[in-house]
Amino acid sequence: MTAQEKNFWLQTVAMPAHGSGEALPETADVAVIGAGFCGLSAARALAKRGVRVVVLEAETFGWGASCRNGGMVLTGMKLPVPTLIGRYGRDAVQRMYAASLESIDLVERIVKEEAIECSFSRCGHLEVACKKAHFDAYAAAAEEIKREFNHEYHIVPKSELCAEIGSDIYYGGMVDETSVSVNPAQYVDGLAAAAHRAGACLYEHARVSSVKQQSSAGNKRFVLETARGTLTAKEVLLATGAYTTGATPALQKKLIPIGSYIIATEKLPAELAQELSPRNRMIYDSKNFLYYYRLTPDNRMLFGGRAAFFPETESTVRESAELLRKGMIKVYPQLANTKVEFVWGGTLDFAFDVMPHSGKLDDMHFALGFAGHGVAAATWMGAKLAGVICGDADDNPFSKIPFPAAPIGLRSGNTWALPLAGAYYKIMDWLT
Ligand SMILES: Cc1cc2nc3c(=O)[nH]c(=O)nc-3n(C[C@H](O)[C@H](O)[C@H](O)COP(=O)(O)OP(=O)(O)OC[C@H]3O[C@@H](n4cnc5c(N)ncnc54)[C@H](O)[C@@H]3O)c2cc1C
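Above are the sequence and the flavin-adenine dinucleotide SMILES. Below is the predicted complex in structure-token form.
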């Protein structure tokens, strides 16, 4: 069994549908490497502006994180607001937060414009407190979000939590009604179809093994060696996420690949599904080593977590299945006898500063570091990069911030220190 073979979302789409069986063209204006949310959103936006764009995907469309995620389209960023303001200043952080809201609106706009059937729903998200101290901090966090960004969260005390979740292990919760749920594989499929309709040429099984810049008569161009031949392009857009390889070493050095795993149960009876998640929210808990969970559109419990810190392999996927099942039953004892039908893993793209980044490296455009917020953020960043390539002013607040390299030992391709980082976060969960 491979991780991908048991991915629930992939059972709901019939990809690939939009790839070209033809030979690669010799030239393109823009070569996009990677066909996840970021690459496909960029390709769609570029093609709509008349740019000759070729998407090169090593495997199949959405093969990376984009088809493997929880489908939670969440507001905000991973770091707490005071940390962000301390680092980047109030003005920049306000623009970042606005971008996070705008990115959800963009997903909604694309879904509507392109008529993508992906169970898009403005269902809101619920964060649940694993400790009393975590709940006590929610009021201040909600006040901060209101003051700094004029955005509303509402606090749910323990006494009212049963209206939100059929579990009594938590100390309370915090809800943001703005967040969304999608079926990520159907969204990828719809994005690929939209990019294709707009004129982008999409190639699967076209792994890029090297990118070299050449210059003649003052004109720069890139020569890409791929599994399907050679392509020359004026611009390159790297959208390879956590699956970035040594073909683009400068980007690979920036990346910390972290494994995350998901199980999905058999279909639940409607009354049980309603009891577990009465408002059908996207739910995650307050730990560093967190659980995230939701119902699927056909009423399965989809339950994920960072059950192992290494990128996915067959054995980490297998081990994660049992760990996650135990975690799920702690939250929902009602599921003790429910069958787990699917388990899969994927790799998250973390930057060392836990921020998304975009800009240029070795003269190539890139966007990376979406961590657990990539459904909306990668869509948005892809569209923004397309704008920059077409000559729009770069108003992306994430392209102006410093982008630290990951320390050796946490870097993609050299990850011996990842279990130590995992142990650190587990200890922090006991202590804080
Ligand atoms: C288990 C899991 C759960 C998650 N849950 C959520 C969630 O609920 N909400 C949320 O917002 N985010 C979530 N995320 C994160 C989100 O899925 C990612 O941030 C997002 O999909 C990144 O999109 P991307 O387009 O940048 O990269 P990817 O989707 O990873 O795509 C990169 C692609 O590049 C290709 N590639 C790499 N190298 C080459 C090469 N040399 N040549 C050609 N192609 C190449 C890969 O094959 C891959 O398909 C989750 C991630 C995981 C793994």
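Residues 90-113 form the longest helix (24 residues).
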